[in-house]
Amino acid sequence: VSATGRTAADVLLDGETIAAVLAPGSTLLGHDLAASVDTVIDATGKYVIPGGIDAHTHMQLPFGGTSASDTFETGTRAAAWGGTTTMVDFAVQRAGERVQDGLAHWHELAAGNCAIDYGFHQIVGGVDADSLAALPGLIDEGISSFKMFMAYPGVFYADDAQILRAMQVAADTGLLTMMHAENGPVIDVLAEQLIEKGKTSPYFHGVARAWQMEEEATHRAIMLSHLTGAPLYVVHVSAKQAVEQLAWARDNGQNVFGETCPQYLYLSLEDQLGASSEEWGDFEGAKWVCSTPLRSKHEGHQHHMWQALRTNDIQMVSTDHCPFCMKDQKTLGQGDFRAIPNGIGSVEHRLDLMYQGVVTGQITLERWVELTSTTPARMFGMYGKKGVIAPGADADIVVYDPSGHTSIGVGKTHHMNMDHSAWEGYEIDGHVDTVISRGKVVVDDGAYLGTKGDGRFVKRGLSQYLI
Ligand code: DUC
Ligand code: ZN
Ligand code: ZN
Questions:
Q1: Measured in angstroms, how far is the CA atom of residue 180 from the centroid of ligand 2?
Q2: Half-sphere exposure of 32 (CA within 13 A, CB side)
Q3: pLDDT tens sequence across 13-43
Q4: Nearest alpha carbon, ligand 1 atom 1
């Protein structure tokens, strides 16, 4: 199955590369194909798809006095289990630090530890003359995209003037600007006012982060993109009004793109409000504290998001994988939701969760591949090597079995380094059978055969969506 169609075929791998895609019954130099190769993987009755590409993960991200609980080792292994063979994580530059130093540190964290191939986007946490001057040099380093935050004042925040200057550099160089589009200063006031009224539980995280402030920031980013001519990629879109802004800009001919995440397609603010357990009481809801937040199911965001995936108003699905354990991490925010580290872990479940959209008739099989592999490859300058099953591409392949029925997250059966799951009890049709990463079988029918260090840094080119 590719982004453009489906066909019965044999895929011939040679070492780390795809050598040929052949019609069934083809021979190799006159010999029967199966007799001419070392290994045969029988995929009869299953889908053979390009390995998943998760273009938004945060292994070991420092956040609110702690760090995301998956290391590059544990998080990439979990990704492999779930059929993701490439991830693009975020190198972090903090205000006052050199961009080059931030990047070097993230290379150190990842090198030799990853189970799958990985690249980096650059978070620019402090936009100043030095960091602006460093941006063009990222392209030679294989980093063709950078992220700024309109949220989190005092941490990663960039104001409009800073965004303008960075987008001007992006327009000149071909770097792709990624935006966390939420109006942070307003959200911080709303959060403070809720706390003053004694509204301290996790649910109020989502109340403070009002959709109006996602719509507003998305619009502002779109206008700055229009003004500067820099293409824009809005990450983790959760509000339907933000989707409408993106659709409007695209209808006006702007080169803007949006990504959503499985949590915004399935989970809602009401799940969080209703969550309670013997162990955590109403702090149970902290499991689903992420930003942008889960939205109210009464406002139609989920339905609109699925629709946007179908109509291409939203182009990609990444996870924003940013796990924190309840014990010792999420609990930092007991009594004050502002101190709950933001993030949900899903890197292992993205292909499965998105396949449910095929099962329920919301997206086609081809669109499933496009959203989870082919568009991420093109968007972030890896297509040809990644995102496609074709001669010359890396042999990153998943055999997906549409049969079977499994519950994910139950009893911590996942492989992410978390003491809970945001997906506890989710019922999945289908499962990942075999995962091949650059020619090596790393997951085979419930067994993990890879090792840390299998994954290599991917030097990315410019976005293939640039005009
Ligand atoms: N959102 C999250 O949920 N976690 C990390 C950073 C972000 O923007
Ligand atoms: Zn973000
Ligand atoms: Zn993120």
A1: 4
A2: 3
A3: 999 999 999 998 888 888 888 888 999 999 9
A4: 291
CA dihedral 226, 215, 233, 82 (to 10 degrees): -170
C-alpha count within 13 angstroms, C-beta hemisphere, residue 12: 17
Instruction: State the distance from the centre of ligand 2 to the C-alpha of 149, rounded, in angstroms.
Output: 7
DSSP string, 436-459: EETTEEEEETTEE---TT---B--
How many Å lie between the centroid of ligand 1 and the Cα of residue 9? 41
Place of tokens 């649910």: 203
**Averaged pLDDT of the chain:** 96
- Dump pLDDT digits (tens) for 451-465: 999 999 999 999 999
Segment 372-389, tens digit of pLDDT: 999 999 999 999 999 999
DSSP track, 158-216: --HHHHHHHHHHHHHH-PEEEEE-S-HHHHHHHHHHHHHTT--STHHHHHHS-HHHHHH
Determine if ligand 1 sits within 6 Å of the CB of residue 322.
yes
* 63-113 tens-digit pLDDT: 999 999 999 999 999 999 999 999 999 999 998 999 999 999 999 999 999
> Position of tokens 């993960």?
57
Residue 86 carries which side chain, given as an amino acid letter? T
